Write the structure tokens for this entry.
Amino acid sequence: MRTLDDLDVKGRRVLVRADLNVPLDGETITDDGRIRASVPTISTLVERGAKVIVCAHLGRPKGEPNPKYSLRPVAKRLSELLGQEVAFSPEVIGTETVEGLQDGQVALLENLRFEPGEESKDDAVRRAFAERLAGLAELYVGDGFGAVHRKHASVYDVPQLLPHAAGKLIVAEVEVLRKLTDDLERPYVVVLGGAKVSDKLGVIANLLTKVDRLLIGGGMAYTFLKAQGYEVGGSLLQEDQLDQVRGFLNEAAKRGVELVLPVDVLAATHFAEDADYEVVEATAIPADREGLDIGPKSRELFASKLADARTVFWNGPMGVFEFDAFAGGTRAVAEALVASDAFTVVGGGDSAAAVRKLGLPEDGFSHISTGGGASLEYLEGKTLPGLAVLED
Ligand code: ADP
Ligand code: MG
């Protein structure tokens, strides 16, 4: 993979695909981790006298302009972190803004996903948008690790149209993930949680061939509990995945992989910060309750299953950590990783945000990845479109 050192950027217009997909509360950025992770590449290009054009997506506006998903607040934060002005282009194809750039200056284009071409499954539609985007620049730097598993115009097509290199974030992320795939130290324990049940069920099949232990919490645990025949009340559930999950349970047993599920949960009356809740056995969730976090016995169990690990990968919060009352399970897993002297990697936007929100030391982990889906697909051994194109 070519890196920034292989590109002569001085005086040239360089399009950087970054991952600036940060959580927002109105216009307030609640976790700026991904913006900070994008700074090393951008500031290196600035120091080397490039005209830097940053592009990125935010949320899922589905191909239409939507002020709710504007990158404008991100431009402001990026400018603070860089210590210099960032010209914000309200147009995605911001020709005018780009033309005004001097060497060493930075512009940020509006949310790529305001354009239907960015995510289009139609190669020709995507390619047409990619050509307009590529027309803004002379060189391309891929640095949006969190998006490299997407076959999107800015990730997959533009680097085929311009001389390109990988940015510092992508290089760093790939180095860590390589360690998780090449001769890792065992026991290897993977902890999965979060809400995107269907996204993650896919990776489990592959992980079952690699891990010694798989701990499952968060919203996805309920599909497993249901597959074992227990009622889960109003908890998150993917009925259509039950057969597949039953298959995983069998496969784990056959392979001798220890699959660990919560034994108790915090069962709330409804999905709210101040909802009433009680601790119940995971096998006895009342019909009118929903599980919003793993319970105290599960926290101890998970910590004990992490204690002797030599390698740990964790993706997905154990509960609705955004609500203080339901952040305890996520905290327990995070603390177990901090206490561990294993090689510990946290992947996933929300998981990384949880670590910071809970005030845990970022250097307590070997690596905090900016990519959730991307790291999971890398670990699965899949070819990531946005990495493959940077490789040739
Ligand atoms: P990541 O971004 O780390 O990959 P996900 O996006 O898959 O993680 O999931 C994060 C979300 O999962 C959080 O917003 C959290 O509130 C939610 N979540 C976790 N456990 C539950 C649960 N039991 N019920 C509902 N939502 C949950
Ligand atoms: Mg997420």
